[in-house]
Recover the amino acids of this structure.
């Protein structure tokens, strides 16, 4: 457990950032009156997400590998963070849905149907807690692996 202490710390930081991001989205109206902007604007979460991976790998390089970290070590660090985030993502989705923005699913279903993008049945099947929990697990793994692969290139030490 001591060998992944840094990864656990940064995975928890990532989870708290995501919850704070959901509060921000809600406060900016992207879950209700400005829901039409949600699909585009939610992508801005990539900025703090990538920053967290950068800081995490730098932390691991400095405080675990004593300033010398290979690409493989950086990638594995990011991969471990991604797995922990993926494991915690259903809980994050539950907290978001139940406490931060319980009206999101009814609002997005209504918008998807009224804009002609989906039928009522399709929208209800896609926009629900179970579906979002599954999407969050897959998304955390896919985006985490991709981000880790790129960030590790820049964070590895030269020697």
């Amino acid at each position: 457990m001591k060998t992944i202490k840094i990864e656990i710390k940064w995975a928890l930081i990532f989870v708290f950032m995501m919850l704070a991001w959901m509060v921000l989205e809600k406060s900016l109206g992207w879950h209700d009156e400005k829901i039409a902007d949600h699909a585009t604007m939610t992508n801005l979460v990539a900025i703090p997400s990538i920053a967290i991976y950068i800081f995490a790998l730098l932390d691991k390089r400095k405080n675990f590998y004593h300033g010398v970290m290979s690409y493989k070590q950086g990638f594995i660090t990011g991969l471990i963070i991604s797995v922990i985030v993926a494991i915690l993502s259903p809980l994050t989705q539950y907290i978001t849905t139940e406490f931060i923005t319980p009206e999101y699913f009814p609002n997005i279903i209504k918008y998807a149907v009224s804009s002609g993008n989906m039928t009522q049945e399709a929208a209800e099947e896609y926009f629900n807690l179970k579906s979002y929990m599954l999407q969050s697990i897959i998304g955390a793994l896919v985006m985490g692996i991709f981000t880790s692969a790129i960030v590790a290139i820049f964070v590895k030490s030269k020697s």
Observations:
- The mean pLDDT is 97.
- The first helix runs from residue 5 to 27.
